[in-house]
Structure to design on (415 residues):
C-alpha cells in the first residue's frame, strides 16, 4: 500500500501542495507579457470602487484594462493595433471622427488618418454660383488667378536648384499672403473656373506643389519633418485643402485628379474617389504620365519645382520631362550593358507608375513589370536627346535588363 495517509484531509493537503508547486514552476518560466495600451476613449474602468479602495489600498481592477498582444488572435491584434495607431494620443477624438463623417485619408492598408485642412478658414464660406451658359466667367476667376500669382511669387523667391528654403518661407510676408489666399479656395467654383482640361491640369499641379510647401513649413516649424517612410505616407494622405467644397489631400490631387482616379503606388491603395462620384466627375482629368516629372513630393530625388502656366502647360510638361531625363538619376541606357541584352537604369518613378506609361504607349496595362519594360522605354525615348534616343532604340531591339536608382527621401531643404 501507499506510505502516505489516505484520509480525506491528507488527500486535500497533497492537492494543495501540487497546485502550489505548479504555480511556482509556471511563474519561474513565464515570460513578461507585451501589453498594448488601449486608446484613452477605449480604456475601461470599474465604476464602483472595491473593498481594497475603501481600505485605501491600490486596486488594480480600477486601472485601465490592457490588451494582451501575445494571447490574442491575429485578427484581434491587428484591429486593436490599428485603433491604437489612430487614437493613441491623449484626448484624441479620431475614433469619434470616423462616425462624425470627418474626411480621412488612407495612409497604408487599414491605417487611415484624419485629413489636416490647411485652409479651413475658407471652408465654411458658400461657393459662388457657376456662370450661366455663355456668360463671362471672368468674375469667377479671381480666386484662381490670385492663387496662381501667389504660388509663382513663392517659387521665384524660395525655390533654387539646391532645394526649397522652407525656413525663409515660413518667416516671409509672401507666405503669409499665400496662406490668406488659400482661405478663398473653399469658395472657388471648380466647375466654372476649371472647365478646360489644360487649365485644370496646370492649376492642380501648381496647387499640389504649393500644398506640399504649406505642409512642410508647418511640420518643420513643429520639428515634425518627415523622417521615415510612414511619415511620408501620412504626409501625403492627410495634408489637404478645401477646394470648392472638396477636401483634397496630396494623394487625392495626384491620384484622383491628375491620374484620372487611379490607385496610388502604396500597397493596398484604394481609389481616391468613388467611381461616378461628384469628385470624379468634376475634378478628374485623363492621366498624363508627364505629371510625374512635375509634382514635387518634398524629397531630394523628386523632380524640381517650377510654375506651370495654364496657357502653356503642354509645352511646360514636355520641357519638364525632357529636363528630368537629361539629369543624373533620370535614365541611363547601355545597349550592351547586360549579358543577354541592354542594361537600363532609371528613376523609380518608372517602376511605381509603370502602367501609366504603358497605357499611354500601348493602350493596355500589363500584369508583370517585365512585360512593360519595352513600352516604358519607348515612351521615355520620345523625351531623350538624339544620342540617348538612338541608344534607347538600339536597346529596344533586344532584351532589357532593368534596374532602378536608389530614391533619396531626405527633405529637399536648401538650408
Amino acid at each position: 500500500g501507499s506510505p502516505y495517509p489516505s484520509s480525506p484531509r491528507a488527500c486535500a493537503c497533497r492537492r494543495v501542495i501540487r497546485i502550489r508547486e505548479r504555480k511556482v514552476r509556471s511563474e519561474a518560466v513565464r515570460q513578461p507579457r507585451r501589453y498594448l495600451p488601449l486608446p484613452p476613449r477605449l480604456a475601461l474602468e470599474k465604476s464602483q470602487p472595491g473593498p481594497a479602495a475603501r481600505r485605501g489600498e491600490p486596486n488594480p481592477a480600477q486601472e485601465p484594462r490592457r490588451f494582451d498582444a501575445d494571447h490574442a488572435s491575429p485578427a484581434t491584434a491587428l484591429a486593436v493595433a490599428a485603433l491604437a495607431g489612430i487614437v493613441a494620443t491623449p484626448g484624441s477624438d479620431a475614433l469619434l471622427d470616423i462616425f462624425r463623417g470627418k474626411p480621412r485619408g488612407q495612409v497604408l492598408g487599414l491605417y487611415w488618418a484624419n485629413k489636416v485642412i490647411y485652409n479651413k478658414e475658407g471652408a465654411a464660406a458658400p461657393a459662388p454660383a457657376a456662370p450661366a451658359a455663355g456668360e463671362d466667367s471672368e468674375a469667377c476667376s479671381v480666386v484662381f488667378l490670385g492663387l496662381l500669382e501667389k504660388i509663382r511669387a513663392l517659387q521665384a523667391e524660395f525655390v533654387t536648384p539646391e532645394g526649397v528654403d522652407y525656413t525663409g518661407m515660413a518667416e516671409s510676408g509672401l507666405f503669409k499672403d499665400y496662406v490668406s489666399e488659400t482661405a478663398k479656395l473653399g469658395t472657388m467654383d471648380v466647375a466654372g473656373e476649371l472647365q478646360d482640361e489644360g487649365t485644370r491640369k496646370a492649376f492642380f499641379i501648381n496647387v499640389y506643389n504649393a500644398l506640399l510647401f504649406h505642409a512642410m513649413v508647418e511640420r518643420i516649424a513643429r520639428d515634425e519633418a518627415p523622417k521615415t517612410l510612414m511619415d511620408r505616407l501620412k504626409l501625403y494622405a492627410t495634408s489637404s485643402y478645401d477646394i470648392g467644397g472638396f477636401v483634397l489631400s496630396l494623394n487625392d490631387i495626384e491620384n484622383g485628379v491628375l491620374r484620372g482616379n487611379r490607385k496610388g503606388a502604396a500597397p493596398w491603395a484604394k481609389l481616391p474617389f468613388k467611381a461616378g462620384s461628384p469628385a470624379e466627375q468634376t475634378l478628374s482629368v485623363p492621366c498624363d504620365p508627364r505629371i510625374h516629372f512635375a509634382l514635387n513630393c518634398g524629397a531630394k530625388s523628386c523632380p524640381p519645382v517650377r510654375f506651370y502656366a495654364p496657357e502653356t502647360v503642354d509645352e511646360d510638361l514636355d520641357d519638364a520631362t525632357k529636363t528630368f531625363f537629361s539629369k543624373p538619376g533620370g535614365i541611363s541606357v547601355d545597349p550592351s550593358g547586360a549579358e543577354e541584352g541592354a542594361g537600363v537604369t532609371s528613376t523609380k518613378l518608372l517602376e511605381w507608375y509603370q502602367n501609366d506609361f504603358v497605357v499611354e504607349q500601348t493602350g493596355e496595362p500589363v500584369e508583370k513589370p517585365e512585360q512593360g519594360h519595352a513600352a516604358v522605354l519607348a515612351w521615355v525615348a520620345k523625351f531623350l536627346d538624339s544620342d540617348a534616343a538612338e541608344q534607347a532604340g538600339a536597346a529596344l531591339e533586344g532584351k532589357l535588363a532593368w534596374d532602378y536608382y536608389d530614391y533619396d527621401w531626405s527633405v529637399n531643404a536648401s538650408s
